[in-house]
Amino acid sequence: MVESGASTGGGPVFRLIYRSSLKISGDDLQVELPKILAAARRKNPEQGITGALVVWEDSVVQTLEGEESAVRGLYDTIQRDPRHEQVELVETAAGVDRAFPRWSMARVTDDDEADLPLSVNQWEGGIDVTAPRLQTPAEEAVIASMRNRVRGAPA
């Protein structure tokens, strides 16, 4: 979900990208994934964390951005989550500009679209499913890398 209220302060942040396999499949994934995203969208703003999630078959690649201790703490929680296995840290970067300042946690499909486009009129209601995509070049670059990684391609 793209959220107009997810914006956090400017300045450099810590970025962590990981890959994992989900122990959830089929119909269970259709039930669990919205729960996972809803929890992230509720909790991440409290921690100043933004990011995006790509799910392809049973593979996940997620980008987390924010203050380093908050991001690493969330990653530690994810590593212990019984819904994930083979959790692999694929990239960390300190002092980078936030690629996803507007998204507490966006779910990105494996085919070029975020699950909801950001509203053109953020101040008038946030989400407009008829609005065109408004991805920035930074978002597009990180998302392209995530899509490659979720399919097993090298970065």
From TrEMBL:
Superkingdom in the source lineage: Bacteria
SMART domains documented for this protein: BLUF
Organism of provenance: Actinomycetospora endophytica
Protein name, entry field: BLUF domain-containing protein
Family matches, as PROSITE patterns: BLUF
Membrane-spanning residues: none
SUPFAM superfamilies, alphabetized: Acylphosphatase/BLUF domain-like
All copies of domain BLUF, residue ranges: 13-106
UniProt signal peptide: none
Pfam families (alphabetical): BLUF
InterPro entries according to UniProt: Acylphosphatase-like_dom_sf, BLUF_domain
